[in-house]
Amino acid sequence: MQIGLIGLGKMGGNMRERIRRAGHTVIGYDRNPAVSDVGSLSELVDGLEAPRVVWVMVPAGVATQSTIDELAGLLETGDVVVDGGNSRWTDDEKHARELGAQGIGFVDAGVSGGVWGLENGYALMVGGDRDHVHRLQPIFEALKPEGPYGYVHAGKVGSGHFSKMVHNGIEYAMMQAYAEGWELLEKVDSVENVREVFRSWQEGTVIRSWLLDLAVDALDQDEHLDRLRGYAQDSGEGRWTVEAAVSHAVPLPAITASLFARFASRQDDSPQMKMIAALRNQFGGHAVESSKEEKKA
């Protein structure tokens, strides 16, 4: 199968490689010419045989809107656009209407896997018309992990990104729980090897998980996370999850508290946020800020 891929950053570049490894043809475009296969979106579209499939992997909001607006002027009836970024589900509905008026299909794909997706595969939560989704199945199969799990057609347009938003809200709460436990262990004089306590939980306990494995990896690199500042960004999806919960009268105390804890991290050098910053760096390659002591060194 042939596909165009726009946005070749940490995830997009690895996705291009994984799709190619599965035997498909990928024409990639990025504003960085060093990683781009073509020099413009127009050149990308011209290089694809109709009916075309173009996958967008750029930041949510203005960047995604401008890319879809430009594609709308280049694509034709029967083509399909996939938004695989972290767009808000309400934007998906808008994009589907705009493109649908020109006979262009639209699919939203929530993608999870971070910097590990190239080797491990990407979890995919997809929303859209069944015919459009079916047409993209070879690409989804190439990207997903091996085995029966890791892919779902969640429902109508917007359902893929809504599902990924909830996934990220749960991720917030899980990371917060590990971070709070780590800080408490660090505070107690009788616990002399916090890192090995975390490591002991990796087998045989009910709280074992990939996030726990990544926490141990982070502690192996910096045992007390002294080199990190206790500051963690929020991607926006935590906020959207809480807003959706308010709209639907669904109580989300753990997820809401974890979002507010991120806000608190911007006021103080929070020990818990050191762990969350370390975890976000481990699974997603997200940037971290050095501690004041590390900066001085």
Give the low-pLDDT segments: none
Mean pLDDT equals 93
* Helical run tally: 14
SSE series: EHEHEHEHEHEHHEHHHHHHH
CATH architecture heading of the largest domain: 3-Layer(aba) Sandwich
How is the main sheet built? 7 strands, mixed
Keywords: Gluconate utilization, Oxidoreductase
Pfam families: 6PGD, NAD_binding_2
Protein name: Decarboxylating 6-phosphogluconate dehydrogenase
Family: Belongs to the 6-phosphogluconate dehydrogenase family. Belongs to the HIBADH-related family.
What descriptive keywords fit this protein?
single chain; 297 residues; alpha/beta; Rossmann fold; N-(1-d-carboxylethyl)-l-norvaline Dehydrogenase, domain 2; 2 domains; seven-stranded mixed β-sheet; 14 helices; 7 strands; elongated; Decarboxylating 6-phosphogluconate dehydrogenase; gluconate utilization; oxidoreductase; 6-PGluconate_DH-like_C_sf
Descriptive notes:
The chain is built from 14 helices and seven strands. With 297 residues, it is an alpha/beta fold. Strands 2-1-3-4-5-6-7 form a seven-stranded mixed β-sheet, sandwiched between helices. Helix 4 (89-100) links the parallel strand 4 and strand 5 (105-112).
Compact summary:
This protein has helices at 10-21, 41-46, 62-72, 89-100, 117-120, 130-135, 137-143, 159-187, 194-200, 210-221, 237-248, 253-265, 271-284, 292-296, and strands spanning 2-6, 25-29, 53-56, 80-83, 105-112, 123-128, 151-155. The chain is of the alpha/beta class. Keywords: Gluconate utilization, Oxidoreductase.
